[in-house]
Design a protein that fits this description.
With 335 residues, the protein is of the alpha/beta class. Helix content is 55%, strand content 14%. Strands 1-9-8-2-5-3-4 form a 7-stranded mixed beta sheet, sandwiched between helices. Strands 6-7 form a two-stranded antiparallel ribbon. A hairpin with a 2-residue loop joins strand 6 and strand 7. Helix 10 crosses helix 11.
């Protein structure tokens, strides 16, 4: 008898918290971030500092500390905003979007009726975009259940409300997304996850990491259109949403090359707004030689990263040289 009661209590608490005014939620998150930044003992803050050393080595120590503090604050505020967004109706969430840059790209892609893949990195407050997109199309989204049953029910209820069909993160879900795209549907994918199994070594900030090439594969096999989306809170407390195209080569390249195009787009965004990327993810352990990278001294870890990055660059340069030599030989024979 206690299990259902506990579940109901947790669900009720989540509902209550999600309906608190957004300024209150942001104040709570900002206060928590202030404590984390003051103590400087959080494992998450150390991970963020380390990830910044890998990706943006040109930053001074002072600038890296500023970005770290801002990233901690922004990420915590985003998580609290997610709860408030899930607890608000679509109309209210749409009203919170102050402007949409590139709206015509979305409408053009949908009017083509060839299917649409929306690529959304772990950046800013991405959940606010679901309500906006739901005005124009029904989405199929792969969803990994939350471990707590009450929290899972809360999140499922919120996301399903926005015309989203939630699919399992397995082969069954992938097949259903393929089918939806073939029928002109829309899917939303966050591309910067480390796959649980398998994966291809694809460079992210020059470091080859185990990555899923599913997004590019979906685009190339279904001939669907693709767009790159992100959202950030603005100085007025609302949100600005950005819709951008990707390099056209993503439609004709290999899945791995297409994934590189997506990662390069992400890198450009991060270089512009490093404090809005969600850096807490241990993305740089996704190589068989880097499994302990977050548990050893930073200097030693960075040396391993840089060695791997240089080895990869040397291999790519050698491969490119061999390709040119083969091409030149072929031309000489044909002449």
């Amino acid at each position: 008898m206690s299990a259902p009661s506990s579940k109901n209590s947790t669900y009720g608490l989540l509902k209550f918290v999600s309906r608190l005014p957004l300024p209150v939620m942001r104040f709570m998150a900002g206060s928590l971030a202030g404590i984390v930044n003051l103590l400087k003992t959080s494992k998450t803050s150390e991970q963020i500092r380390f990830n910044l050393k890998i990706t943006l080595p040109e930053l001074s120590e002072q600038e890296r500390e500023r970005v770290t503090r801002a990233a901690i604050r922004n990420e915590l505020i985003s998580y609290f905003e997610f709860f408030n967004i899930w607890g608000s109706d679509n109309k209210k969430n749409i009203q919170r979007i102050h402007r949409v840059e590139g709206e015509h790209l979305l409408k053009e892609a949908l009017s083509a009726d060839k299917g649409l893949v929306l690529i959304v990195p772990h950046f800013g407050t991405w959940e606010i975009m679901n309500a906006y997109i739901a005005q124009y199309t029904q989405m199929s989204i792969m969803y990994k259940p939350v471990k707590d049953p009450a929290a899972d029910e809360f999140v499922r209820e919120a996301r399903s409300r926005e015309q989203a069909t939630l699919l399992p993160t397995d082969e069954t879900g992938v097949r259903q997304i393929f089918k939806a795209l073939k029928q002109g549907g829309t899917t939303v994918i966050l591309p910067d996850h480390t796959p649980n199994v398998g994966g291809e070594y694809i460079p992210f900030f020059g470091v080859p990491l185990s990555s899923s090439n599913l997004t590019a594969k979906l685009i190339q096999k279904t001939k669907a259109k693709c767009l790159f989306l992100y959202a950030m809170r603005n100085e007025n407390g609302d949100f600005d949403m950005f819709i951008e195209p990707l390099n056209e080569e993503i439609y004709s390249s290999t899945p791995n090359q297409g994934t590189e195009i997506i990662f390069r787009k992400m890198e450009e965004l991060i270089h512009h707004y490093p404090e809005h990327y969600h850096w807490s993810y241990k993305r740089f352990k996704a190589h068989h030689s880097l499994g302990d990278i977050y548990h050893i001294p930073h200097d030693e870890a960075l040396a391993k990263i840089n060695d791997l990055r240089q080895t990869y660059q040397d291999e790519q340069a050698k491969l490119a040289a061999e390709t040119i030599q083969t091409s030149n030989t072929t031309i000489a024979i044909e002449s």
